[in-house]
What does this fold into?
Amino acid sequence: MKKVMIMLVSALMVAIFAVSALGQGNPRGTAKLVLKGKTVSVEYGRPSLKGRSVDELLSQLKVGDVWRLGADKSTTFSTGIDLAFGDTTVPAGDYSLWMEKQADNSWKLVFNKQHGQWGTKHDAAQDAASAPLKQSQAAKPAEMVTITLAKAGPGGAITIEWGSMRATADFSAK
It folds into this structure.
């Protein structure tokens, strides 16, 4: 009886995992960085351009609109240490990550207290912090959204690339 129960529970867990995986239409990506012994990470959906232009896709957004930085479930940014993005402090914790279009067509990185929700469910009242992003042309176009975390001087940098778009923000541990 015990073996049958274990087999049933195992089968149920596999089924739940399979349904969950099928609910995500795009592969997931992760990036990690360790600062002062604490982990900073991002987990995100990776949509493909599939012949589309990222400039056309993002130009449809109006000033103040946010992009969910990926696909499917919201992008989750986790930090085990307080971070400084310039004068902006992002306290240790878990956040959903967004990009907000500015009046001059630049972008701001937005950290929202809600995370794990479907990617398009942004509640601006839950925004905890934001930091400007530096934009440039990607050296090599990225078919899929790619987010990286890398050491940069005494701190780190987050880089978001998709198509010809490249947006970065430096940060340091507090």
Observations:
- The chain has a mean pLDDT of 87.
